[in-house]
Fold:
Amino acid sequence: MTTYKMETQLTQIGNGFDELGAVSAPIYLSTAYRHEGIGVSKGYDYIRTGNPTRSILEKAIADIEGGEEGFACSSGMSAIQLIFSLFKTGDHIIATRDLYGGTYRLFELFAEQYRLSFTYWDGADDDTLASLIRPETKAVFIETPTNPLMREVDIVEIAAITKKKNLLLIVDNTFYTPLLQKPIADGADLVIHSGTKYLGGHNDLLAGLVVSNVPEITEKLRNYHNSYGNVLAPFDSWLLVRGMKTLALRMRQHETNAKRIVDYLRSQLLVTKVYYPGKGGMLSFELSKEAYVKPFLKALRLITFAESLGGVESLITYPATQTHADIPEALRLKYGLSNSLLRLSTGIEHPDDLVNDLDQAFRSLKKGVPVHG
Structure:
């Protein structure tokens, strides 16, 4: 059996699936499928339980991540919710402290409604992690790199602890994608993606993905996925497949642009800190004063001030009022997410244009451009 490189795997998603030979697999919109007799099925019966277009996507993400089975969900948050269906009242989960605000909000809801308990740690100290494990601890949930401080967590070291303690290791791989990081190969049991971001890549779809590598967990997730119905629609599944075909090309340009911007930002007197893990297209930086944030954002002409990330267009986000607004300010400030921090998702534009846009914004800031609106 031929083993292809990931770039080839991504490009070939869906090719050969259609019996008529369509290179681009068709979108199967049917909600129901004909039965030739009682107990006779061609593999698809009802759209919630299974859909050919969604199957192409789910098989692709499982293969690329090196897992047993994939599940395509209606959003990244619904992907997390699917995984948390595995837990019950009284269970304890340890999570990285610096994580997406929407995930923190969902964890708070789980704590309130289902009496799950959460402990947050910095993701760096293995001894601290080991000391946080209780008899009721069931899983460790990590983002790596973290959002938005871009801190890498050592999956291999964490996996050594979770396997020893018989805990599930859940890794959000949204920022790096399987091109830059393979959590399952490093010891993770479950991988999550917000498919809305890099995998989709075009700021035009909402999707979440889960990959399981534990047979008994896979069986449970398959049942929950069908029972709850938080599945991805056929057209969105097709859009996500189309986006993934160009992931390798896009990620190279994202990273090229990010490194160029990081070099530029480190030379700016009005920038006090730059957070970049050394690879990928995501970075954050702090301005020297919180008061500079608003005029700086208004001065940008090419880079769009908007939430989300991972698309072909460069987006800049102010976590304090956008992606991380649900995290109490005192908590944010305590772990380093200041009100002067901006997060930048570098697109695939020419790096000169991106740097020039940042430069003219900084020049405007130095001239004391008044705040309007």
Observations:
- The chain has two domains: 6-245, 247-366.
- The longest helix spans residues 247-265.
- The radius of gyration is 22 Å.
